[in-house]
Amino acid sequence: MSEDVSLDALREEMRNWLVENAPRDWRAQYQERGQADFVRAQRAWFESLVEGGYAIPHWPKGWPGGGRSLAEQRVIYEELARADCPRLLLTFVSTYHAASTLFKCGTEEQKARHIPGILNGELWCQGFSEPNAGSDLASIRTRAELRGDKYIINGQKVWSTLAHHADWCLLLVRTSTDQVKQEGITFLLMNMRSKGVKVRPIKQIYGDSDFCEIFLDDVEIGVENRVGEEGKGWIIAQETLSSERGLTLMELSYRVRHGLWRISQLIIDRGRQSDVGVLRKFGRLVTRVQSACAVADDFLARRIDGTEEVGDASIVKNTYSSVLRDYAWFGVRLGGLESQYRSPVTLGDLNTGNWMADFMHSYAWSIAGGAEEIQRNIVAERILQMQREPKTWTL
Length: 395
Prior knowledge:
Elements: H1 3-21, H2 26-32, H3 35-52, H4 70-82, H5 92-105, H6 108-119, E1 124-127, E2 143-147, E3 150-161, E4 168-174, E5 185-191, E6 197-202, E7 211-222, E8 226-227, H7 233-242, H8 247-258, H9 260-269, H10 276-305, H11 312-341, H12 355-362, H13 372-383
Parallel strand pairs: 1-4
Antiparallel strand pairs: 2-3, 3-7, 4-5, 5-8, 6-7
Helix pairs in contact: 1-4, 4-8, 5-6, 5-7, 8-10, 8-11, 9-11, 10-11, 11-12, 11-13
């Protein structure tokens, strides 16, 4: 059987499964319910995908639905976007960041303890960014002192998504200041129920509290929860962050494309279908969205055939974040005052049905997955081979 035929069969199988299992009217339900109901709905959708064999296609063979090729994974995420299913926001860090880190860098004991737990609903958050170390993770200051067989942790993390629901945390700490910044970082696994851990949700402008601060006061973490060698956490963190790129960016780009019908419906509902100016702007938006999908497709093709280069993912990421803002802003302008005064959603994200929340949340993507400014530097230096000029100061 040719690969094309196999992929076509998978696509048909996926579409048939989604007809029976995809959540219905989930936007309205997410807006009307509280966060506890949102968590239950997300857990139920994750369990359904696990049972169907579509939740973790990027995991190794032997796990439910794991061992899929990149081409097969692409089909699955395309169909999830096409069917307008809710994204797995609650389990994203667990199934991507945590699982990928453990599979590639964890000990056998760590894998045996946590990988099955993730499938059974164990939730993870990420403790990387700090108040003065966001896009520059090498500047983290949270300290870890080894005393016997335990690390004693003191410091603060910020912008940790859904940390108030998490059971475990991927934690970067500084164990040395005697070397270059990147060499003094260690990667730990922290139980969020540990004594000395305090989580405080951050109220966002769009009404939700999906980001959190984490305060660490003499938190004890056993050395058995260290991933890799002490001082080698920077390398492991790069592996963690790379796990969300590629297919995730392609899926998100496709979700915007498949969400264009919502813009067209809004144009009709507002009686603007004869407004030449609105139609011209809509045409430009459609072109930009299609271009973003083409960029994502090209990137994935490079990854599949092994020709991906450093900086390719940065182009996809910045293209998507820019298009997402334009898409949501167009919805806000067409929706008028009504779109600006609707009640906040349970969790801000793409295509929630609340245009203002979507627009304000779109700015999170200027930072998520790597700040846009940092990505531009990567493109300039690694793809365009531009040299950094020394800073000059004038008074």
